[in-house]
Amino acid sequence: MAEFLPEPRPDEMDLLMVLSALADPHRLRIALALAKAPDAVLPCTAFELPVTKATRTHHFRILREAGVIRQYDHGNGRSNQLRLADLRQRFPGILTTLLAG
Amino acid sequence: MAEFLPEPRPDEMDLLMVLSALADPHRLRIALALAKAPDAVLPCTAFELPVTKATRTHHFRILREAGVIRQYDHGNGRSNQLRLADLRQRFPGILTTLLAG
């Protein structure tokens, strides 16, 4: 059974952490892809990032710890989903900004 | 007479550059202060930043080059204003996000 990995509650999310998480070309690409398909739950391997597996794992972790994405651990891999409702509640406007970029 | 310093046009603004400009505690503090008083034109010295003058100049330059602020050069100093209309046009939602943070 898939398990959630630890993530901040909406009231624990910090604007500077979210901005820092998004201020990287690979992480912004991941967030944009998820923002364009907000109901999707996608495995890390679905994102064609030109980085090592360890670096890819790192980028997803930064996004999760900032509260941008939720990660499910399947044992043999992780899948990812945008925290749409939480982001909208905590930082209204941020998805509009991302999708306008 | 005060002169504008070079800045990107709205269509030249880049989301990653804007996020990177804001993803720093000092620069976010400057942007938030200006976002809370969007009509204000404030000298660099109005922001109490615990950094050297050169570092302060650097932070304002990063914000200007990303398109977040407009800078006026008075010869003996610079003043700063949020590019409210341009930000709203190019990245709708971003001010709402900042002020919710």
TrEMBL record, chains A, B:
Q: Which GO terms describe its molecular function?
A: DNA-binding transcription factor activity
Q: Which InterPro entries match?
A: ArsR-like_HTH, HTH_ArsR_DNA-bd_dom, WH-like_DNA-bd_sf, WH_DNA-bd_sf
Q: Which SUPFAM superfamilies match?
A: Winged helix' DNA-binding domain
Give the protein name, as stated in the record. Answer: Helix-turn-helix transcriptional regulator
Q: Where is the HTH arsR-type domain?
A: 7-101
At the top level of its lineage, which domain of life is listed? Answer: Bacteria
